[in-house]
Amino acid sequence: MSYTAVGSFGGASTTGGSLASFSLTTTTVGNFVLCEVIDFTGGRTATALSSSNATWAELGNPATTSAGPANCQVFIGTVTSASTQTVTITWGAGATGSLEGCAFQEFSSTTGIPVLDKQGTLDSAGTNTWVSLTPVAAGELYFGYAANTGSTIAGSTSGYTYNANVDASNNGGAYNPNCGASATAPVWGDNTESAGIMVLVMPPASGGALPFRPGKTWLRRFRHPQQLPPPAAVVAAVAPAGTVVFPPAVGHPARHRASLGARGVLAAGILAAGIGPPAVPAPHQPPAIAHPPPHRAQWRAGQGAPPGVVPQKRYPVTVYAWAAHRAQWRGTTGTAPGALPQPFRPPVLPHPVPHRAQWRGGAGAAIAAVAGTGAPQPFRPVTVYIRRPHAAAWRGGQGVPPAAKAQPFKPATVFTRAAHRVLWHAIAGAPPPAAQATGTLQPFRPVTVFSRRPHAAAWRGITGRAPNPPPQPFKPVTVYRRTRHAASWQAVAGHVPAAVRQPRIPATVFTRAQHRVLWHAGAGSPAPPPPTFTIGALTATTAARGYLGAGTAPSGALSAGTAPLGGITATDA
Amino acid sequence: MGIELALPGTIPIPLTTLNNGVQTFGPAGISNADTLAVLSIDRTVAGGLNALTAATTIELTIEQSDDGGVTWFLIVDGVLTGGPVPAFRGGGNATTSSVAADWAPGTGREARAKMTTAGGPVAVQGTLTIS
């Protein structure tokens, strides 16, 4: 993470008038401040900022939106003292708008004063999303401030810090000091974000302005002559929007001839002083070369060594960075150049004796043993490891994947089997001996055969209907008697239904014993009762039950005193 | 003597006619929790800014002191002009003008407002809100 916010995210504004100046509190020398100034509905743009605690420069280009219109400009200030000071705004020509405001935030940096990477302009009648900017790399800083035509409501986009009232006039500002590598933009909670500039800043390219590091100059390895690198922010300001801006590389002056060394100086001095052969043409000029040597580009392309050149041992060129002369930056108001990176010195590559593994694999004594020190080392064959192609190799190819490694052979264990006991149980005598007489008889255990059902994928691949499920055990449906809810007939209008007709029960007819008077008069038990009297009409076919004849014995003496059984009437059935 | 504000509050600026020159309002105490200062002026009062021309200006400044009023430093400086000006929100002409800014961090802070008039006299009425 290159950038960290320091202090508060603040601002100032004037409505119905002009904003002339505001207060800025800085905390650490070497930090930088991003500040955006907006004139809304007016016709003028801020062209400069000035304060005694920071050095200001424009960052990017000014922008004028159609919404408002708003005239916007972002500035970057390098903190030169930790204090609270007044920042004065210099405005260009034009009328004052209905709002003039600014938003600012101080940041610390681990990579020096940043330069502009991208700039975007928000120009909308009302939106909730600011301009999306894509950083060159992760870790860049997104900063913006925009006029709002309604009420600003902070958003919640990850990584962003919002201030919905950054200028004290209900306009919002936001920043993200550590953007990801992809396009980024803050989303607000309102839909009335209207006009403003958003910028992405990134670390300067090598050779750019470095953080100010106070201290003795000799500790920073200043060298002469030096050249002041241009201020990164100023360079960025003239770049078109949406382009990556790098400050121009620091020029390297031609190497002084003194660097040729003492002998070079001597030779050069001799030639310069005119000592030696006179500067006259040779009497015999060499003939023109008809066939010049091939161009370097040809042999550089791989056609061998350049003609007439013996290949030399190649060393990387040591290139020293040149910092600006301190006399130059002392006369300016910019930041002092920081310490320069140390000159690159290629590491010394020792050439050790060959590794022991090399001579172990070959015949003969070890190379180091040539010196005669120590006894020869015991021979040890080289360990050869099996290498299999990487999985990605055959995955990307069109062949088949390499076969698996052969497994170590292990013969199957064959157990002796005695006959099944069913066999010898059925016959008399001892069980048959085992086929092999070696070892103890193993307990027989029949193979467990598991039922297998076809895999689901089998019938899934078959067209047609899936097989029906097996029939379920029959279980008749239990039908419960339901009585109608009371509310049912209560809701019915009318009378309660009539009672159900009861089943008819015939009247019970009891047999009647003969009147005791009768059997009192007779001998023995009374005669059995006559059969059940049947109601019906006598017809000609009705059989007589008996006849009263001359031989019919009287059942008793009938006298005058015999009481009649009862009166017989016409209605007797 | 200044007005002490232990909590966020509003300092009324009564209807006053400002002649050319500087008029100071306050000082007032600022709570340690306060972060915002807004000085607002009513432009519609009789003899106020809307009734005048652009030749009349009022420079509004808010200042802060961290040493009990011995030294003052500027927080924000805005210049209001006479005559109708567009409103920032809502359309039409502005009925109020304001300058606003964040207080500088610190403790034991005090605030005051200054109005510098040119092309006056001009009538003003407003508030200094501290929050």
Describe the structure in brief.
The complex is a heterodimer of chains A (573) and B (131). Chain A has ten helices and 13 strands.
Description:
- The complex is a heterodimer of chains A (573) and B (131).
- By secondary structure, chain A is of the alpha+beta class.
- Chain A has a domain at 3-202.
- Chain A has helices spanning 232-237, 262-273, 296-300, 326-330, 356-361, 391-396, 421-425, 456-460, 486-491, 516-521, and strands at 3-15, 17-25, 32-40, 46-50, 54-64, 70-79, 84-91, 99-109, 115-127, 141-148, 161-163, 172-176, 193-202.
- Chain B is mostly beta strands and 131 residues long.
- Chain B has a single domain (16-130), classed as Jelly Rolls, CATH 2.60.120.
- Chain B is built from no helices and eight strands.
- A four-stranded antiparallel β-sheet of chain B has the order 1-8-3-6, with no helix packed on it. A four-stranded antiparallel β-sheet of chain B has the order 2-7-4-5, with no helix packed on it.
- Chain B is globular, with a radius of gyration of 15 Å.
- The chains are: A alpha+beta (573), B mainly beta (131).
- The A-B interface holds A 7-8, 10-23, 25, 40-41, 84-86, 96-100, 149-150, 165, 167-169 and B 35-38, 43, 59-60, 64, 73-81, 85-89, 94, 96-102, 104-105.
- Strand 2 of chain A pairs antiparallel with strand 5 of chain B, so a sheet runs across the interface.
Q: Are there runs of chain B of 5+ residues with pLDDT below 50, and where? A: 1-7
Q: Cα distance, first to last residue of chain B?
A: 21 Å
Average pLDDT of chain A, rounded to a whole number, is 69
End-to-end C-alpha gap of chain A:
130 Å
Number of beta-strand segments of chain A:
13
Could you give the count of β-strands of chain B? 8
